[in-house]
Amino acid sequence: MHNLRNKSYKQILILIIILSIFFQTSAYIMASANDNNRNQVKNIILLIGDGMGTSHITLGRISKGSNLHMNSMSYNGFATTHPIPQEKKWVTDSAAAGTALATGNKTYNGYISVDVDQKPLETILEKALKSDRSVGLVTTARITHATPAAFASHNSSRDAENQIAKETIGKGINVLLGGGRGHFLPKSDNGKREDDKNLINSAKNLGYEYVESRKELNKINKGNILGLFNDGHMNYEIDRDKSNEPSIAEMTTKAVKLLNQNKKGFFLMVEGGRIDQASHANDPATAALDIVAFDDAVKVALDFAKKDKNTLVIVTADHETGGMSLGANGIYNFKPEELKKQKSSLEKLLPTLTEDNYEKEIEEKLGITLSEEENKEIINSFKEKEEITKFLTDIINKRSNTGWTSRGHTAADVPIKAYGPGAERFSTYMDNTDINKIMTELLNLTGRKIKRAA
Ligand SMILES: [Zn+2]
């Protein structure tokens, strides 16, 4: 009897041990499967606000009157922006900063994804293509402009946009949407090309669907696409003809839809290209609307990533432009309501002003009624284009109390915001080249694996 009870105790004990090993093992397997899922980055959407410093993000939020989507992203960090440190210039241009983000290497200002010896540096877009992923570039600037160019081409001069256009077309990039039609057309066809080549026809021969309006863009549902919506940069959001030119959010929606048809995943770069230019012009109302429009594209990316779960979304900037401050001249106030009255960019308004129409135009387009003194001043400034630009810039910034320290870039660090698998890696202070290195690692595009894929 005693022996028997002892035996059944033993059996129960063994059963408990077996069951506990089984549950622990299965829990471990499930946990590691979850870990793998969490770490798997199939797609990356990198959104770059050109010239978008922290003040710009605040400007967008205050002007919008509610929080920006980018501010909801789970992980936040900061990045340096300077070009190759040996130069000790500290202030980057979009070419050197674009090269850092596209290749993980520092270079000189003006250089497009080439090193200091002008040797090509492989970009994350090129590596993603080699790994059979789909790739895309979306921008509101010219598609040949420094930031997208740094992902698609190699050149020791950012100004060689005719060459950059040719290289971009020949690369097999699946989605190309932006401005800059002039660099794809010969001079004989109102373009800027001196080689008399029509690269739009070349693109069609390479299998691209070509579109140049919002309506045409809407019709494309598969295949490779080249969309060039303006001869130069696309219009600022404040000036955009919404029936004809797609918004940056609409372009992003289409890009994601097309690229996501590849089961192996995709890499997409989206640039809010004109935040920078509005800031070069010290035109805060125009910058504000482009920041909010860029943020709408961030929402498109986040909505997709939330459903997809294998998409990493990163929002950052290449540098800050303008040394902008919200509140200036020792006055503790900023008046976004003054910016809301503006209906046109300064860039678009200025060439239309004459001594006869200026009073009405400034009232209508900028929402500004000039004082008697200002009227006298503007009449005098009509002699020089630069004078009137300065006069109007001063007037709009004085009314909203926006400050600017420069018409160029500054050396300020820029924010990084990340959402999705691997996002926690960006929740620190890093060099801008590290953003590329982490993306490359998360997409499994490090050198060794590339060779195998290619
Ligand atoms: Zn710039």
From TrEMBL:
Superkingdom classification of source: Bacteria
Is the Methyltransferase keyword given for this protein? no
State what protein this is by name: Alkaline phosphatase
Q: Which residues cross the membrane?
A: 12-31
Q: Which PROSITE patterns match?
A: ALKALINE_PHOSPHATASE
Task: Give the classification, highest ranks.
Answer: Bacteria, Bacillati, Bacillota, Tissierellia, Tissierellales
Query: Which keywords fit this entry according to its UniProt record?
Result: Hydrolase, Membrane, Metal-binding, Transmembrane, Transmembrane helix
Keyword Hydrolase in the entry? The reply is yes
